[in-house]
Amino acid sequence: FRELRNMLKRHPHIGSFPFVTDPVTMTLLGSIARRYLVSLLCIKIGATEILPQEKRRSKTPSELMQRRRSSGTTAALILTGRNESESHFRVSSPLHTTNPLSQMVPSAANDDTFGHQRTLTIAERAGVLNQTIEIDDYAIDAAPFQLVKGTSLYKVHTMFSLLGLHHAYVTDKGRLLGVVSLKELRDTFSDIYVRGAQLPPWRRMR
């Protein structure tokens, strides 16, 4: 839970995180919505550990599904879990929809977030933070959009446009290599257009 808390604080604008077998094989099993991870942290150690923006977002869960900014490497955003052979996940997860968060977590996650939860002592909180996270199968989206290594830029652009994607995971034989965001794709095309465009006469004369 300590790593989860630090990860959520480091990446406040990422709406979902990749879920892999382990840090070595990095086989992609699916993705997990940020709001589910936030709810886990609240249930375990209370709302005092949640950042102010998370408390505001808890009133409008749809905001948690929007990835406003993509930065950093995917390796810093990895959640590891069970072996692939032990995984039996649903294709669509209720935690990746626009349903209210209060309908998907225990009744403790109501408007006054965990207001009646007993405050943990420093020692108790440290013990909880050292515990291993147990992810429920229903919380995992087993079918996040993936791009195979070597896919052409034109094809990537076409799929993003047709499917309305905000990001896609890049894999090679099931192994997670990274993530491509819509912003990065737009920046790439913008750079191509700038480098390939003809300069106006007044600039060519310089």
UniProtKB/TrEMBL annotation:
Q: Which GO terms describe its cellular component?
A: plasma membrane
Read off the InterPro entries from this record. CBS_dom_sf, Cl_channel_volt-gated
Q: Which Gene3D superfamilies match?
A: CBS-domain
GO MF terms listed in the record are:
voltage-gated chloride channel activity
Which keywords annotate this record? Chloride, Ion transport, Transport
Q: Which domain of life is it from?
A: Eukaryota
Q: Which SUPFAM superfamilies is this protein grouped with?
A: CBS-domain pair (SSF54631)
Task: Determine if DNA-binding is one of this entry's keywords.
Answer: no
Protein name, UniProt field: CBS domain-containing protein
Taxonomic lineage of this organism? Eukaryota, Metazoa, Ecdysozoa, Nematoda, Chromadorea
